Every structure is written in structure tokens, then in C-alpha cells.
Amino acid sequence: RPQSFERLCQPQSPLRSGLQHSPRRSRARTTTSSFARIEAMAPVVQAMDSMDKLHGTTNFANFTAYSWNVFRYVGDYLHLAGIFILLMTIAKNKSVAGISRSTQILYFLVFTTRYLDLLDHKQTTYLVFFKLTFIATSTLVLVLFYQLSSTYERRHDTCNLLVIIVPCATAAVLLTSEYSMLEVLWTFSEFVEGFAMVPQYIFCYRERSGRDWGASMYVVSLGGYRVFYALNWIYKKIEMPHYSDMQSWIGGIIEIMFFVDFLNYRFTGNSMLRSMVLTVDTKINEISDKVELKVLGSSSSLRMETEGGEMRRRRKVEEMPMEDV
What we know:
Elements: H1 3-9, H2 14-20, H3 23-41, H4 50-55, H5 60-67, H6 70-93, H7 101-114, H8 125-147, H9 162-175, H10 181-195, H11 198-207, H12 213-239, H13 246-268, H14 274-296, H15 300-319
Helix pairs in contact: 6-8, 6-12, 7-8, 7-10, 9-10, 10-13, 12-13
């Protein structure tokens, strides 16, 4: 006889027969196994942070590994060194002479808009330390400008900040990778950083003398930081051809271009961008003064000239010999 018929005729154990003749248990077992198969087939959804959104989840482990390279470390520490050189220079001279306040305002704007991701997701101690340090030191520098305002050389710091901020804000809205508040502000900070040192370069172009080496070392450190970050981007692009961070690249290229031209001017006296930058800056200030005169009845340059005249008259009075009482 067929073996299947023999198996049917064999007596079954109580447990087996009980399971077989219990429709409730059978349905429960079927339902449990169905849920198990559905859970096994369902894809595992992982939480995405801002880095995942920018660079994708499939290669995030590789991206993280290649991000921590020697070029990035050198860039970070050059940036940190530049900020402490600036603070030590101000403390030594008890003056903010030779330093652009506009550049410090732009860097404060960069740090406060970029590092809002501290509130978004957990980060390494290294990143938290650097981000909080940059925010704190940029705030401290602006406080020092307020306390030492009498030493601030306003006549050299002529860059109009609106000319930088408004186009960068527009570009951030148009070129952001995602329309969320954090992503738009992060993109804005990348574009602003590309122009953050331009007011300092204009300041140095107008000042010409470059009296303090501390201010010059600060400029070199900040420019070097961007050069090493560019090498970091190149390294990651070689290791991961799919890697793309266009907003950072645009800002970095602009800043490095200005930095290389400034070094050429500082050490050789030649510059391809100096005359163009100063001409554009002068034209912008002329237009701004005309608008202020029509709207407010006075302009910033007029107020600056008045302050400068009062300062010169004050110095002449101080230099006159004192009369005997």
C-alpha cells in the first residue's frame, strides 16, 4: 500500500492529535506564522540624520571613515589656531586696529546658522567642542569690538554686508538640497563663508601698511584652513566618486581664490583682484550713500568724515603745549 495511507492509519500521539483537532490553536499558530513572515519581509527603516540626507545611507559608513582624514584635522586645527591668534593679538595690543569688524560679523553669522544641527542629532565630542568653541569665540570677538570701539578703524572697513548677505540668502533658497530650516541655513552658511574674509582683504588693501603680524597670521591661518578643507574634499571625491557637496565646493573655491590673490599681494605687491575689489566696493558705497541721503538725509561716509574731523581737531588740541596757570 502507499506509504501515505500507512501514515494515516497509524495512531497519533495525544499532543499531535490535540493540536490537529483544536481549531483555535490551529488558527493562532497560522496567524503567528503569518505575522512572522510579514515582519521578515518588511524592510528595516533606519533613522536618518542630516548627514544621511546629504550623502545617502548606502555609503554612510565609508563616508564617515573617509571624512576623518589628515587634511580635515589640519584644517580644523588651523582654523582654531587662527581664532586664538586673533584673540591674543587683540589682548596684546588692547586694540582691534587692523581687523575688520564686518568679517567677524559674517563669521558669527556662519557659525550660528551652520551649527544649529547641535540641536538636531547627537554628535561626537570632537565636533561638539569645535562647534561650541567657534560660536563662543566669535561672540567674544564682537564683544571686544564693542569694548574697544575707540580703536576700531572704520575708514578701512568699507565692505557693505548686505551685498554679501542678500545674494547668499537667495542662493541658499535656490540651491539647497532640502527645503527644511536646518538645510537652508546650512547652505546659507556655506555661501557666506566663501565671502567672509572679503571685508578683511578690503581692509588690508586700503590699509596697505600691514603693521601687525598678528592680524596677518590670522588671515593666513583662516586661508590655510580652507585650502586644507579643499584637499579634504578632493581626497573624499577620489575615494568615493559618488560624493558631492556642491554648496561647500562653491564657497571654498571663492574663498581660496581671494586668499591666493591676497597672499600674492602681501608678499609680491601684485594683485589681480585688488583693483577690481576696491572699485566694486567704492561704487557700492557711493550708491549706498546716495540712497541713505535721499531716505535718511545723511550718509555713513558723511558721518565718518565728521567723526574723523572731530578726532583730528581733538588730537591737535591735545598736542598743543599746556599754558602755565
